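Fold it.
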Amino acid sequence: MDYRSSMESSETLRNKCAACYRQFNKLEHLVEHMKISYHSGHEPTCGVCKKHCRSFESLREHLIGPLPKQECKNIFSLRGCRFCMTILESPNSRRIHQERCQFSSVNSGLTTRMAALGLRDKAMIDYTSSRSPRVVALSCKMVGGGSDGSLDLCARVCITDESDNVIFHTYVKPSMAVTSYRYETTGIRPENLRDAMPLKQVQRKIQEFLCNGEPMWKIRPRGGKARILVGHGLDHDLDRLQLEYPSSMIRDTAKYPPLMKTSKLSNSLKYLTQAYLGYDVHFGIQDPYEDCVATMRLYTRMRYQKHKIEAYPLAADAQNRSNQVAWRQSEAERMSPDEMLSISRSDYYCWCLDSLA
């Protein structure tokens, strides 16, 4: 290799992102990339080559997609867990780990029959209990309103804790006429709603339970009494319940960047449950309890990811504003790719931080 080729090769390596391994022709292009990529230790990372990926779907494509990195694919096929994407020490360790990592399905047929008989209805919430949960999951099922039955009306709601226990479950009487019960997917009949709890009463009970004695303006993600709310598509559920709750307390599996598609669109709960928990949901009549359990399991899996502890992990933290000075072209160009990565911070709240609260 001649001197010029050697210099070009060295320059290319210097312009390689230490996180996603993208290479740039010029150093200033790498600096611009680092400014907008928000790489951090909270991103899903390949256990073989340590490449950072924006989502677990992107990591899955890197390992077993149509065009995977061959070395990583070979090792993952022998020692990788297909649910949490972890690389284990040996094929035997992988077998044991994967058996523990895969969840069993909820017997939705049984729970639906129990609900129809009123055996799981729990219309009272003991939100004063000292042992009450810090994290809860919520799911609603909708019937149709309006002339064509396309307007979603909340007709059933369920709240569970981290141990899959039912905290609250009830049918809900909508505030307007139901024109489509959508029985094939909801299992709801007119008689279920005839004497159901009115929407306003359901709203009040849930709001009091979530806030847990704290005024809405005072709620904060750490150190307070208000509860973390887990779900899938919670914007829609809360809208149909006519509830407001601080976004800092919401953990939505439909909007969490590591669980989204590479196109940055939401994955369905059915896909997420199958891919990351190892069982199927949403066959026939759908049960809100089943959705609560699935979203809580996904949340728990994400929460207990092991990441490097940082005092100020978010790019938006006031203490990280000094990093913006370091991103000045003249300053950043003196840094190595590893040094740039060391001051880069995440642009989303990683759920592992809930374990530190």
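The mean pLDDT is 88.
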